[in-house]
């Protein structure tokens, strides 16, 4: 069997390769080599014995990536059709659309711990015509940089995401150290709310990834978070929340009930206290 190395694409044999990962790192322990894994299409981080891993063939990986891109494009096209049915347009008025009103959507600052997700997220926002800044920042660095970035970009909506996961799945739900990155998301939310209290921006915040410590993230000040049922969330889920808030008028209050049907696993994956939209119409 071919040796598994850092950067390889793998699946866990004991889980029937249900999630495809990239090998983030390999560490030596008294019990042998342990691989630290990051999901390719799921926002999850995990570890396992290196013997449990099986290399994924290029064709299988291409198939998975193609399916992800297909789902992203499908949602983009669905949203474009919805916007065409409304009596306003995004962007500057032209000779062809002067009868329509111009809208200004909420400005998004998106911090993502995964480089490839950052790139896909940026393309998604751009195709929808949203005003979004996406930064690839490792989860542990996000609390250190968020205040300064908020001062620079002055957004209406903040997305804090990347990878997460429970170390002991199904146990210690209320121990923040049983989550791989939840404490970083929590501290980033707290820093964002410190900025918010000083600048009075009334930020709408989404925070979390797969299996994140939902209750603690909400208590820290997030409007929406993952994952109430400690399940894996889809790559698109944080983007859907940001998109819905950005496209909702300021006088409307948006709740999880308005979003749940567009989240892969509904309220089991994402929930929260809600927020006012951030869109204005001129």
- Give unreliable regions as ranges: 91-95
Query: What is the string of SSEs from the N terminus onward?
Result: EEEEEHEEEHEHEHEHEHEHEEE
Helix content: 25-40%
- Give the helix/strand class: alpha/beta
Characteristic key phrases:
about 280 residues; alpha/beta; Rossmann fold; six-stranded mixed beta sheet; five-stranded antiparallel beta sheet; 16 strands; globular
Outline the structure in words.
- The protein is 33% helix and 23% strand.
- It has 282 residues and is an alpha/beta fold.
- The chain has two domains: 9-56; 69-281, Rossmann fold (3-Layer(aba) Sandwich).
- The strands form four sheets. The protein has a six-stranded mixed β-sheet with strand order 9-8-10-11-12-14, with helices on both faces. A five-stranded antiparallel β-sheet has the order 4-3-2-1-5, with no helix packed on it.
- A hairpin with a 2-residue loop joins strand 2 (20-29) and strand 3.
- Helix 3 (142-153) packs parallel to helix 4 and helix 4 (182-199) packs parallel to helix 5.
In short:
With 282 residues, the protein is an alpha/beta fold. The chain has helices spanning 58-84, 115-128, 142-153, 182-199, 214-220, 237-246, 256-259; strands at residues 9-12, 20-29, 32-39, 45-49, 53-55, 88-90, 101-104, 108-112, 132-136, 157-161, 204-207, 224-225, 253-254, 271-272, 275-276, 280-281.
Layout of strands and helices, then pairs:
Layout: E1 9-12, E2 20-29, E3 32-39, E4 45-49, E5 53-55, H1 58-84, E6 88-90, E7 101-104, E8 108-112, H2 115-128, E9 132-136, H3 142-153, E10 157-161, H4 182-199, E11 204-207, H5 214-220, E12 224-225, H6 237-246, E13 253-254, H7 256-259, E14 271-272, E15 275-276, E16 280-281
